[in-house]
Amino acid sequence: MSEFDDQFDALIEKYTELLLGESTSEKKEMVTRYALYSFIAKNMPALVKHWNSLYPEGKADMKEMVEQIKEWNRIHREQTKGKGDS
């Protein structure tokens, strides 16, 4: 891996850790896909709509992944709530 690859991987790892409370390779991959899908959906919604219609099972998988990330984030926020208030 190049130096940039290592640096970018560190960014994704830290983002995953801050979002979910921990950074495993599986969670990093999920967060990377979630972030890219979200970016494309905001910038090219017609492309995502087209992809969703071509690949309904992919859309369902993405929806499930987003829900899992949201749940992990909710749990992480609840666990860290009040820790910085001491």
From TrEMBL:
Pfam families xref list: DUF2573 (PF10835)
Protein name: DUF2573 family protein
